[in-house]
Amino acid sequence: MLTDHTIKFNKLLTPFSFLYGIGVRFRNQLFDWKILRTERYDLPIICVGNLTVGGTGKTPHTEYIIRLIKDRYRVAVLSRGYKRKTSGFLLADQRSTSKDIGDEPYQMKRKFPDILVAVDADRRRGIRNLLALPENKRPEVIVLDDAFQHRYVAPTLNILLTDCHRLYTQDKLLPAGRLREPMDGARRADVIIVTKCESYIQPIDFRIIEEDIHLSAYQELYFSRILYGELEPVFSGKAPKRTLKGLASTTEVLLVSGIASPAPLEKEIHKYTEHVTSLIFPDHHAFDRHDIQKIQTAFKRLTSTSKLIIITEKDAARLRDLPSLPMEWFSHLYCLPITVGFCMDREKQFQELIVKHIDTRIKNHPILR
Question: Is residue 336 a contact partner of residue 310, using CB atoms and an 8 Å limit?
Answer without folding.
Answer: yes
